[in-house]
């Protein structure tokens, strides 16, 4: 069993003791209404405090009317926010958890909207948001500095424990300190590092004047912006040494990486798999040797054993485990008890956490639908009447419904036709770079074992079997099968599906064209898989962009691989005809033809059609029967898991 000699030791930050080294870093939740935190936000953080987090840092709090990042940013420049700080303190402090608040101004990094006013040290635009910001005037700079101090005072009045000035990811303070973004020739700019850091220095001085020396004040920043106009690692070391030795006033540095300015650099803000765990820890270790205050570090530290190793190696003083606790808020307490097998491990999919936030909807977790729904489901009640439940289909929907039904006390039998649980995830994990996605199945298998679900593999369920079993409830989770488009030549022998390739039921020829309709991971994934097999591959999609339906951060890494492997990509063309050794597509706007000759294999990535024959056989004979996941209508794993969860929670 793993020993945690560092992870659960207290740590003093400024004048404040933190009970352990586990940190939930600031991350936007979209649990905000009209600029004010909701009860949903309070319940969300309470659950993580209850689960054992030592420190929680609340997401971006706008310090000024120009500091809106999205429509769901907390308006902390108004006194109306103070009662909600008090509610947050009342929610987390009984568990011994401390809470800081991020003091935030994005500068030029603003999501475009009808009311966005992007401001910056200079009128230098960012490639990702494509807004040319307004260069700040001296009086505007001073008003924003006052906003930081006023907001910090509100946090202290609200009974919370500290504030964190956000300079990470290319946001406003770092725009001032970058010589490539700050082109000013006044006291806040130029090639002089003292001038470029004057903005931050005056923020710290004004904040300290309002909150005093005993209140914790920290700084979050990227160890490397990973984009041409931002700061690189060597510059950051110089900046931090200057701050530490010449400025002072800060109690810690919270290190992360990447910038919001470009798609490539922003992918490292919430890095998905296959980015290695703790990938910024080595950067933090070197900085830790150069400064006098504690160091925090984040970046795919999703496992307590990894966190312990980072601490034991002297790379940091506290570990950011944000997504680990989005996935399993009780991870700290489980690790403390030595109950590692009960931890639901984050797989770095980014789908329902940052993926939701970027769609302006409340965050959740693909594996853990309780996240964001704590008010309804934080306490899972036992069933009033114990039932016998039969679940047909061992994919994510069936597995999740089985786990939740068994957790509530029902007697559950889960049937799977093949010799292995997992459904389509079994194929998804074969895609290069997506291997970790398969841990979703491992997590669910451990939960099935824990709740003693009767799992029957290699079992083809018939109407007769179910009628003989006579269960109280039947859940159909039989998934889907590849959809075959109705086009000429589709029955030719060289036309196969992505499933055929990923399961090796069919072998591809040398020259392969992938016809993609959904723009999801199936099309790009099978293209990467085919390239690894040595095929010459072209991916043709009917979407306006390759990978259109994939979460942005994941899409960035996937497209990077497609370009590096020199896979030919063509967008906005839909399959129209297959010939014996040719494929014809038509432009989705004009109908113009695009023909590819000498094609050995045509691979279809056209989505799924629901598999629900058993449902129709049973529905006249079984009074309580339900469909979930792809057997209802094919979508993503997130919807499948959520439907399995919600149905089982209602039975």
Describe it for me?
By secondary structure, this protein is of the alpha/beta class. It folds into three domains: 11-377, Aldolase class I (TIM Barrel, Alpha-Beta Barrel), CATH 3.20.20; 388-482 and 610-650, NAD(P)-binding Rossmann-like Domain (Rossmann fold); 495-606, FAD/NAD(P)-binding domain (3-Layer(bba) Sandwich), CATH 3.50.50. 32% of the residues lie in helices and 19% in strands. It is built from 23 helices and 30 strands. The strands form eight sheets. An eight-stranded parallel barrel has the order 3-6-8-11-12-13-14-15, surrounded by six helices. A five-stranded parallel β-sheet has the order 18-17-16-19-30. Helix 3 packs parallel to helix 6 (198-211), helix 15 (396-407) packs parallel to helix 17 and helix 20 packs parallel to helix 21 (552-564). The chain is globular, with a radius of gyration of 27 Å. The two termini are 37 Å apart. The model has no long low-confidence stretch (mean pLDDT 96).
Question: Any key phrases for this structure?
Answer:
alpha/beta; TIM Barrel; Rossmann fold; FAD/NAD(P)-binding domain; 3 domains; 8-stranded parallel barrel; 5-stranded parallel β-sheet; 23 helices; 30 strands
Instruction: Report the principal-axis shape.
Output: globular
Taking all Cα atoms into account, the compactness measure Rg is 27 Å
Count of helical stretches: 23
Gross CATH architecture of the largest domain: Alpha-Beta Barrel
The named CATH superfamily of the largest domain: Aldolase class I
Low-confidence stretches: none
Proportion of beta-strand residues:
15-25%
- Quick one: how many beta strands? 30
User: What is the residue-mean pLDDT, rounded to a whole number?
Assistant: 96
* Proportion of helical residues: 25-40%
User: How would a textbook summarize the main sheet?
Assistant: 8 strands, parallel, barrel
Reported by name, the CATH topology of the largest domain is TIM Barrel
**Overall SS class:** alpha/beta
Provide the domain count: 3
């Amino acid at each position: 069993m793993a020993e945690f000699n560092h992870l659960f030791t207290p740590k003093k930050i400024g004048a404040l003791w933190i009970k352990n080294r586990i940190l939930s870093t600031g991350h936007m939740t979209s649990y905000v209404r009209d600029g004010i935190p909701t009860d949903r936000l309070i319940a969300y953080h309470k659950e993580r405090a209850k689960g054992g987090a030592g420190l929680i840092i609340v997401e971006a709090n706008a310090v000024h009317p120009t500091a809106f990042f999205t429509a769901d940013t907390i308006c902390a420049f108004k006194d109306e926010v103070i009662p909600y700080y008090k509610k947050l303190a009342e929610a987390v402090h009984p568990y011994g958890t401390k809470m800081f608040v991020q003091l935030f101004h994005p500068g030029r990094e603003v999501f475009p909207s009808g009311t966005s006013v992007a401001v910056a040290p200079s009128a230098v635009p960012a490639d990702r948001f494509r807004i040319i910001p307004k260069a700040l005037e001296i009086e505007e700079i001073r008003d924003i500095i006052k906003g930081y101090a006023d907001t910090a005072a509100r946090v202290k009045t609200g009974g919370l424990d500290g504030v964190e000035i956000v300079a990470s990811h290319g946001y406003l303070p770092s725009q001032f300190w970058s010589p490539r973004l700050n082109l000013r020739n006044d006291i806040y700019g130029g090639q002089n590092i003292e001038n470029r850091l004057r903005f931050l220095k005056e923020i710290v001085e004004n904040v300290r004047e309002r909150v005093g020396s005993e209140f914790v004040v920290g700084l979050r920043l990227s160890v490397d912006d990973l984009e041409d106009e931002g700061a690189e690692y060597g510059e950051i070391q110089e900046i931090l040494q200057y701050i530490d030795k010449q400025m002072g006033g800060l109690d810690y540095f919270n290190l992360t990486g990447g910038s919001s300015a470009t798609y490539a650099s922003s992918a490292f803000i919430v890095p998905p798999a296959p980015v290695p765990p703790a990938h910024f820890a080595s950067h933090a270790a070197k900085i830790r040797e150069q400064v006098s205050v504690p160091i925090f570090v984040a970046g795919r530290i999703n496992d307590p054993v990894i966190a312990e190793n980072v601490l034991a190696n002297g790379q940091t003083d506290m570990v950011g485990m944000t997504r680990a606790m989005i996935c399993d808020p009780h991870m700290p307490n489980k690790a403390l008890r030595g109950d590692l097998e009960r931890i639901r491990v984050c797989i770095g999919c980014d789908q329902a956490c940052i993926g939701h936030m970027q769609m302006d909807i409340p965050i959740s977790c693909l594996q853990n639908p309780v996240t964001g729904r704590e008010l309804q489901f934080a306490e899972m009640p036992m069933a009033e009447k114990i039932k016998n439940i039969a679940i047909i289909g061992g994919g994510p929907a069936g597995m999740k419904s089985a786990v939740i039904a068994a957790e509530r006390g029902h007697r559950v039998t889960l049937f799977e036709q093949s010799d292995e649980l997992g459904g389509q995830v079994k194929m998804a994990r074969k895609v290069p770079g997506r291997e970790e996605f398969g841990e979703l199945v491992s997590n669910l298998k451990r939960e099935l074992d824990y709740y003693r679900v009767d799992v029957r593999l290699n079992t083809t369920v018939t109407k007769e079997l179910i009628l003989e079993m006579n269960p109280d409830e039947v859940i159909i989770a039989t998934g889907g099968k590849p959809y075959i488009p109705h086009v000429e030549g589709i029955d030719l022998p060289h036309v196969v599906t992505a499933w055929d390739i990923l399961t090796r039921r069919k072998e591809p020829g040398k020259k392969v064209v992938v016809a993609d309709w959904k723009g999801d991971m199936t099309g790009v994934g099978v293209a990467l898989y085919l390239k690894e097999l040595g095929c010459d591959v072209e991916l043709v999609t009917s979407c306006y962009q390759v990978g259109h339906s994939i979460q942005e951060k994941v899409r960035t890494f996937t497209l990077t691989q497609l370009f590096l492997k020199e896979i030919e990509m063509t967008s906005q063309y839909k399959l129209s005809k297959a010939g014996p050794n040719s494929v014809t597509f038509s432009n989705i706007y004009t109908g113009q033809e695009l023909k590819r000759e000498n094609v050995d294999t045509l691979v279809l990535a056209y989505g799924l059609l629901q598999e629900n024959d058993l449902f129709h056989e049973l529905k006249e004979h079984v009074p309580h029967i339900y469909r979930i996941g792809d057997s209802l209508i094919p979508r993503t794993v997130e919807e499948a898991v959520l439907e399995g969860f919600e149905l089982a929670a209602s039975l």
